[in-house]
Amino acid sequence: MNKLALYCRIGFEKELAAEITDKAAERGIFGFARVEPNSGYVIFECYQAGEADRLAQELPFDQLIFARQMIVVSDLLQDLSPEDRISPILLQYRESELAKKLKNSTELFVETADTNEAKELSGFCRKFTVPLRNALKKEGFLQGKGNHQHTLTLHVFFLQSTACYVGYSYNHNHSPYFMGIQRLKFPAEAPSRSTLKLEEAILTFISKQKESQYLNENQYAVDLGACPGGWTYQLVKRGLFVYAVDHGKMAASLHETGRIEHCAEDGFKFQPPKRRRIDWLVCDMVEQPSRIAQLITKWFINGWCQASIFNLKLPMKKRYTEVKECLAMIEQALDQQGMKFKLKAKHLYHDREEITVYLYLLP
Length: 363
Prior knowledge:
This protein is α/β, with parallel strands linked by helices. A hairpin with a 2-residue loop joins strand 6 and strand 7. The two termini are 42 Å apart. The longest helix has 20 residues, at 119-138. The protein has eleven helices and 14 strands.
């Protein structure tokens, strides 16, 4: 097994291929990314033996922007017999040079790509999971416990019912979700579906243990481009007081909470109230990504906020290049000010032609 399979949103295969090639090269690992447009995945084949496993352990998954999941896989198994698909899969695991380590696995995901065509396979994958899991347990696999660096998740990635990749991921360095997708339910009282983007961002970037510490009733936030209030809703729900900045109307239900002040102003010109410490800046404005990056940078350099979650709307071409340039601009500007910070970015499931960025100052 010397390949990586990485899942992504359909249409972003080229961006993911460029990203994994860059990140691997930074670690002295080289290979070839195979891309099939609108497939929802990329296969990165390493030139040297053992390097895919090394990447799966050492390349921080949370540093990959466009990847939903990262797994080490075998060669593609093809022409599987409908009468017995299990035996060839078991053989791949049994004959792997990592077979002993693979027995220290905790879970099995039988998956497919997140495409309209592949959705027809989802029912098959669900039905196939139980008999395959039972067969793996009889072979001594799925014996691991816990979520540390020595435990694994087994993945079987079907391209069609007769063809699949067999592989694994490291529990300390992967998405814990099936197909790498965190499913969220739209709250009926939220003003817009964009609320799911901020909810997913909070769940992705901030641990459950720290969420109440970072987002609570003692904090103040600014929401630039807030109308009708999808992102403000998530903050108010967590107890924050929000300055909602937008010329449009905010949902009446948010006014009724007594936790917002509607500021009918331009998000690019708005400045926070004096003598009011703003903890959070959030922004989902539809604007050129470079302008948003400059705006967020200005807020941090001026000391107007401590943390921010914002979206960068991507162009149709050179999207990965645009992302790298925007993030590098922010990092360079804050570095020049001697500021200590953390910056993370992710193409979330509820994002479309955009990525979500989390930036916060270190103590």
